[in-house]
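Lecture 7 notes: from sequence to structure.
We start with the chain below.
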Amino acid sequence: MATETETDAGTPRPPSTRRSGGRRVRGARLPLLLGPALVAGVAYLDPGNVASNTAAGAAYGYLLVWVVVAANVIAWLVQYLSAKLGVVTGRSLPEQLGTRIRHRWARLAYWMQAELVAIATDVAEVIGGAVALNLLFGLPLGWGGLITGAVSLVLLAVHSRHGARMFETVIIALVAVIAVGFVVGVVVAPPEPGAVAGGLVPRFAGPGSVLLAASILGATVMPHAIYAHSSLTRDRFAGSRHSIPALVRATRWDVTLAMTIAGAVNICILLLAAANVPHGTTTLEDAYVAIRQNIGPVIATLFAVALLASGLASTAVGAYAGGEIMHGLLRVRVPLIARRLVSLVPALAILMLGADPTQALVLSQVVLSFGIPFALVPLVALTARADVLGVHRNRAVTTAFAVAATVLLIALNVALLWLTFSGAV
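Predicted structure tokens for the same chain:
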């Protein structure tokens, strides 16, 4: 039997036929439609962001503030396109690709690279939670990773049993903890405004700064968030009585709010490190100690609590994204625990083997940056097509900006490859 968004043959109907005559969104009702972007936005506040921005601030001061700003501007456009795809078509990006990539081996290869990205994501998130538990309670990193993974299962169970809205509420509450924990230090010990303004001028200072810039981009424009956002809007607005134009407008507000919060927090993390963490500091543990010495134990504890909330929230969203990627591309669903173990085991292995957690966090973000083109190129292509989005397809200027962003990200990744294999970094 055909669904609302599919014909009997499984081909999506023209978007203009779906809920075009539904209710308009009044101002008082707008907050009720917010939420999916705030959940997807957790990907922009995960421990990988904390590690990358802390490392950038400690190593180069305010030099890379402009990278954080640029990354969040790009992220706004990317997340809006992903959310719009899910709203208009009622299908996620992985589902769209699973339908269009017809050769089984090509679809499998595409899934494998997306799965690698999901694993790299989980490495960052589980390690971040483990480090936070170690800072707060002295727990060994291995046990901290196990606890982080277990809590993520609980959060995913909330989504399974109570639906998208309750899951959103829990994740948004954790986002509030993250925001307070990372921003309060900048409020208590504000940086020099002139130095911050100088960091808005685009420039690098050697290969090391390029590596960190790629890490920041990988931590900000995250592939799994691109896949997940279309799924989140699909789940949230399935059967909505509101019209598609109304939902698209609400989505723009949702993405704007989420990216404003994420961008502000990421900048604050870099500023906090630039002003209070000594040059040469390479670990989150050392950054915590420096913040404790320079600003006080209360701010340091809030920093660690925010890092913990970041790890718990982002690992749950990351696992949700991994499940959607597998379902959309391979057309199979696996038990929640099995799906969780696929990406949890590598993270635990890194912790058990005694690898430097902060270095693992930063390098995981570089891996994520290489996965960006595989998610971003098809997203831009699909959202520009009238046969996919109908009247809601991208305008020419939107597509132009999206293509420019894609080219920029790919060029930076190529430069990073050259620097890495040439031994420059």
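Points to note: The mean pLDDT is 85. The CA atoms of residues 123 and 347 lie 4 Å apart.
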